[in-house]
Amino acid sequence: MDHEIELTRLLVCETELQAKIVKGFLEENGIKVMVKGLDTGGSVFGGAVEDAEIEIFVSVDDLEKTQELLEALEEEEGDPVPEWICKCGEEVDEGFELCWSCGAEYQEPTGE
Ligand SMILES: [Zn+2]
Questions:
Q1: For the chain, which residues make up each domain, given as ranges?
Q2: How far is the CA of 94 from the centre of ligand 1 (A)?
Q3: Class for domain 7-77, per CATH?
């Protein structure tokens, strides 16, 4: 007996790139994803079609887990690096994880 999978729309992406990031991320975590509106055939010439709406569907059974995963993804992205002083003495603007001068990685301040 086939159990028909019920799909629910997870979100609508404005760009193909965003849709691909979400799809790839979810698939890595074992979620089956269906994307509607994404042109999978032929060559893609660097860019999204304007006004394109790309819809991402997941199984209703996976919805809860999917939302948790997306929240985790957003938290990761929403953690900007503050302005910091590199060990080489240069000041690095916020949002940059690497020193523009020597290429060192951002170190969280250890605090005193
Ligand atoms: Zn540096």
A1: 7-77, 80-112
A2: 14
A3: alpha beta
Say how many Å lie between the CA of residue 106 and the centre of ligand 1: 9
State the pLDDT at residue 48.
47
Span from the CA of 77 to the centroid of ligand 1 (angstroms):
23
pLDDT of 32 higher than 80:
yes
In whole angstroms, what is the distance from residue 101 CA to residue 60 CA? Answer: 49
* Surrounding residues of ion ligand 1, Cβ less than 5 A: 86, 88, 90, 99, 101-102, 104
What single DSSP character describes residue 83?
A: P
C-alpha 87 – ligand 1 centre gap (Å): 6
Compute the distance between CA of residue 64 and CA of residue 9 in angstroms, rounded to an integer.
12
Single pTM value for the model: 0.55
Tokens of 35: 């994307």
Predicted confidence (pLDDT) at residue 51 exceeds the cutoff of 90: no
pLDDT 10s digits, 35-50: 988 665 444 455 544 5
